[in-house]
Amino acid sequence: MEWRKSYLDLVLIPHAILFPLMYHVWLWNKIRSEPHRTVIGMNSAGRRLWVRAMMKDNEKKNILAVQSFRNAIMGSTLMATTSILLCTGLAAVLSSTYSIKKPLNDTVFGAHGEFMLSLKYVTLLLFFMFAFLCYSLSIRFINQVNFLINTPFSGEDGDLSGRLSYDYICELLEKGFILNVVGNRLFYIAMPLLLWIFGPVLAFLCSLVMVPILYNLDVLCGKGKESAAIGSNGKVEKMDAQV
Fold first, then answer.
1. Does pTM top 0.85 for this prediction?
2. Contacts of range 64-67, beta carbons closer than 8 Å, 24 or more positions apart
3. What is the DSSP letter of 224?
């Protein structure tokens, strides 16, 4: 029976997925509780300050705002295109009759039967599809902000000026960038699954190596440095970061 030959896959692959998921749950709680300790929290604070500066002096900085959003949209478009191309390639492999040569020792390299091979490709396909969805929604929100940040308001607008406030535009911008981050993280989690094609051991090792690398990229460590954080009212506050 094939499942008896795939015990390495059953043990290592769930752990290879669980480690990054647990790390991102911890990171999300860290962002909510101590945003000044994370790169994502600091970037969010910087974006709020940037939006306020753009709206305050919009006549002089409207071109800068449009160009900045265009660059962000281009980055999301590139990743969305990459995701859908990978989905197309995986779908072509699944629908073809191409067969991969079975390794000499399934005990070391894991199972490579038809069912297990299809499971690997389908799992990768789902991750890349969800990444494409996140990038597409990110482009949608950033496009909305691109229009709203340069919208002139006057006293004749009445209640509309109150609804299209600084906080509303910042909220839309944050949704766009959060979705972009989620798409990137789905790409990162798909890396061990991509190595799963060559065996569960490589996938498990890749997951173990990836988590500390992401930690060093996501968490800020410093003593006595003044940092900016977002308060519960959506404003940027200053505080001392201590390890």
1. no
2. 65/146, 65/149, 65/150, 66/146, 66/150
3. S
